[in-house]
Every structure is written in structure tokens, then in C-alpha cells.
């Protein structure tokens, strides 16, 4: 028995999210089907976390246990040959200790939320970024707001009560706004994220950029532990899971 | 009666090309439908040229004659509100002389052909670039080949005998290869292009990059006027019509 870890990129546009569900047509279903075609054994994979319908990934991570003797360096090519074109195994497959678990072993995750501020949306990126043309967003205010999210906080204000979490406390290691041409990217790295957390952060930042929520109010909005006081949940397709990190080093 | 000119960007993935055809589902059909919804009059548009199925545009140009009194600055927003999300009117609509014709008045067109050279294709750009992972392409050889295309030539070797052209002579004003990360972009600007010309140039350049066609043989391949001696027609989805220029200045 081996435990194999892989990294996968996907365009989530055509899927009902990452995690397998009765209705099918999820990224996990597609990957498990590819593994079954390859190994002739039904195999369950464990993802680092779910992503919602239309949410994307550049570096989602999953692992699975297998009796297959396929050489570790062959897995990527073999699965890619069997996967649809909107899902790609990237980087090298790795054999990991049997107790490695993509979700429980994850130390840090990085998400990106992309906003297009040009007058017309970009037809080639229409499924990958929120289009917000008017009026101009105040980047300085947005950066002041982002800084207040860094650190250990109770993020009850920034989640949807979708399913039970033992705790709403999470640590954000970094939160930054990058600008290139008409594109604004919000990058957030943390030890974990609550349901809809990055999308609510994005929706709140847009309100801050519009001057509808004061830039310096984020700390008090966190303390209020009240979802209704922050911004709306931004559309799913602007969100991309960039990376999942398993190293102990938190620098 | 007014003659109105517009610029349009489209993701050609879901269309059978630009030009209207009996089967429908073309970009022209979609634009004419939007104009009809807006003006309640069936209106024929004239594109600067056809683009094939799955070929894209950042700056296709079309014009149409209309009795509508809608103000010129309102056309873009009004049509965008009625167009599917993979087609966007960009820039400003312009009123042009009644005899302006998007195809016959065009002075220069610029196309881009994009190639992705990374080991795995980019899931977010899979419909917009040719994936050519192995082996490494010789950029220097490709540039030497491109230079020989510049100037006035008979491009019979670089076209598919699809429909009758009065002449196969065209002038290429510039042809260059740009590289950014794992992406190679071939930009070609000319006074006109034969059917499949840019895709055959791209297919030939890849052969040159692979060392299968000598870099200095392009001039003799042009002189041979023989389609079978050059490279294959590269896949349509790597091709994008970047711009159509109507100014007299050829600098």
C-alpha cells in the first residue's frame, strides 16, 4: 500500500465544485474516474478542502492510497491522458507517509480573488474574474482594510453558516492587493479558511474600495462577529485556490 | 441613413466562426440578433474578414448601415447588454462615411498565434493557445524564418485552396516572435491574409523551431509556391485577430 500526493489545476467553470456529491460532475469524480480507468480499482481521493461550483484551482492537492505498482513518475502523465482538458495534474506526484492526509496535514493555503476593473469585461477571462467597472475603487483604502485581517481572529463575521465548524478562529499570515493593468488580485494566505471566507473578504473589500465601508472598521467588524455588517459574498468564479503548503516552516 | 463602425472582442470557442452561415451560431449571427433586438430591424453587418471556428478576436471590426437614431455613444453599452458574455463590443462606436466598408477599407491586420511550451497545458488558456510541450523550440531559428516572410510575396505555399482569391500576393509589414514565461506569441501584421495563412505560418515556424525545416529555407519555400513543402496548419484556437487598421499611414 502506498500513499500518493498530487497537485492539480482546474478550471472550475464546468463543475459542481471539487468534492464528490451524489449529482456527480465534480472535479473529484473526474479524478477518481481517471484513476479507476488507469488502475482498474475504484479509489477514493482526499482533497485539501472543497472548492465551490465555478471556483478554480492552480494548486489544489489531493492524496490517495493505492496497491498499484505504477512508478511514481508515471502517474502525472497517465492521469492527464485520461482527464478532461479543464483538469490537469501539475508538478510531480510524490509518495508520502501512509498517515499523510491532504486536509488534516495542510499548514497553509493561499487563495486569489481577481477583479477586472476595465469598462468592458475581458471575454477571455470572463469565467475567472469578477467584473467591477464603475466607479474607481480606492486601492489605498482596500490595503488598509486587508492589513487588519492579518493575524489570529475569530472570522464569524466573514463566513456563511453553511456547516458546523468547531471553531471560527483562523490565522491569516498575509493579505495583499496586487494591481496589474485593469486587474486587481487579492492574495490571502492563512492556516485555514471558513466557508465563503475569501469571497466575503473580497465582497467587503469592494465595499471598502467604494467608500461604503470605512477602511479602518475591519477590526471592529471582526469583533462584532456579525455576518450582516460586512460586504456581500463575491461571485464564485473570481476565486482560485493558488497553493496548499504542508511544510512546518511558517515563515 | 448612418454607417456605424464598431470593434468587437470574442472568445470563438463556442462559435462556428465569425461569418454568418446557414447553420447559425456564428459571431455575426449573435451581433445581428443583438442589433435586431435593439432596433427592431434586421440589419446585416460587414466584418473585416471571416475568422474560422474556434478562432478568437481582440479587435475584429464591423460596420452596418442603419436608420436608427440611437446616439453613437449609446451603441456599445446597448449591444453589450444584449450580447452573450463571450462577445463584447469594445472601445467606442464611430460614425463613418457611407461608403466605408470594413473589409475593403482595411489597410492592415494584425494576428497573434499563441503557443504554450510548458510541460502541462494551462487549464485557463487551453482554448486560446496551442500546447507544444516537447522538445524545446529553437527561438533563434524561428526568428530567422519569420524575417523572410516580411515584404511583398506570393503566399501560395502558405494557404489552403479553400476559395478563389484573385491574387496570392500579400505584403507582410512585420512578423515577430515574443516570449513570456512558457508562452510564445507570433505577431504578424500585413495588408491582408490568405485563407489559413497565419495558421500555416505558425505550423511552419514550429517545424523550424524543431529543426525539421531549415530556418533559411522560407524564401525558397515561398518561391516554390507549393503548399505541401511547408508545415501543417496549426490548430485554430491558438489564433487571435488582434487589430484591424484603417489609417493610410503604413509606418
UniProtKB/TrEMBL annotation, chains A, B:
Gene3D superfamilies: Pseudouridine synthase I, catalytic domain, C-terminal subdomain, Pseudouridine synthase I, catalytic domain, N-terminal subdomain. GO terms for molecular function: RNA binding; tRNA pseudouridine(38-40) synthase activity. It comes from the Bacteria. Substrate binds at residue 111. It catalyses: uridine(38/39/40) in tRNA = pseudouridine(38/39/40) in tRNA. CDD domains: PseudoU_synth_EcTruA (cd02570). Its EC number is 5.4.99.12. Transmembrane segments: none annotated. The active site is at 52 (nucleophile). It is an enzyme of class 5 (isomerase). The keyword Hydrolase does not apply. The keyword Magnesium does not apply. Keywords: Isomerase, tRNA processing. GO terms for biological process: tRNA pseudouridine synthesis. Residues 8-104, 145-247 form the Pseudouridine synthase I TruA alpha/beta domain. Homodimer. Belongs to the tRNA pseudouridine synthase TruA family. Formation of pseudouridine at positions 38, 39 and 40 in the anticodon stem and loop of transfer RNAs. This is tRNA pseudouridine synthase A.
Amino acid at each position: 500500500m502506498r500513499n500518493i500526493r498530487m497537485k492539480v489545476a482546474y478550471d472550475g467553470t464546468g463543475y459542481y465544485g471539487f468534492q464528490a456529491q451524489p449529482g456527480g460532475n465534480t472535479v473529484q469524480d473526474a479524478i477518481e474516474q481517471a484513476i479507476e480507468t488507469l488502475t482498474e480499482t475504484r479509489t477514493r481521493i482526499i482533497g485539501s478542502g472543497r472548492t465551490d461550483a465555478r471556483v478554480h484551482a492552480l494548486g489544489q492537492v489531493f492524496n490517495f492510497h493505492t496497491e498499484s505498482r505504477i512508478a511514481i513518475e508515471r502517474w502525472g502523465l497517465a492521469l492527464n491522458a485520461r482527464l478532461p482538458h479543464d483538469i490537469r495534474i501539475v508538478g510531480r506526484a510524490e509518495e508520502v507517509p501512509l498517515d499523510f492526509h491532504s486536509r488534516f496535514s495542510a499548514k497553509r493555503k493561499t487563495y486569489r480573488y481577481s477583479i477586472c476593473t476595465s469598462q468592458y469585461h475581458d471575454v477571455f477571462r470572463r469565467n475567472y474574474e469578477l467584473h467591477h467597472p464603475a466607479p474607481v475603487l480606492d486601492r489605498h483604502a482596500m490595503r488598509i482594510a486587508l492589513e487588519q485581517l492579518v493575524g489570529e481572529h475569530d472570522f464569524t463575521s466573514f463566513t456563511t453558516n453553511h456547516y458546523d465548524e468547531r471553531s471560527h478562529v483562523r490565522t491569516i499570515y498575509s493579505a495583499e492587493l496586487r494591481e496589474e493593468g485593469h486587474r486587481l488580485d487579492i492574495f490571502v494566505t492563512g492556516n485555514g479558511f471558513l466557508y465563503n471566507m475569501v469571497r466575503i473578504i473580497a465582497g467587503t473589500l469592494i465595499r471598502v474600495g467604494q467608500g461604503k465601508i470605512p477602511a479602518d472598521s475591519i477590526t471592529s467588524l471582526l469583533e462584532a462577529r456579525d455576518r450582516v455588517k460586512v460586504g456581500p459574498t463575491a461571485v464564485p468564479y473570481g476565486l482560485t485556490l493558488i497553493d496548499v503548503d504542508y511544510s512546518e516552516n511558517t515563515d
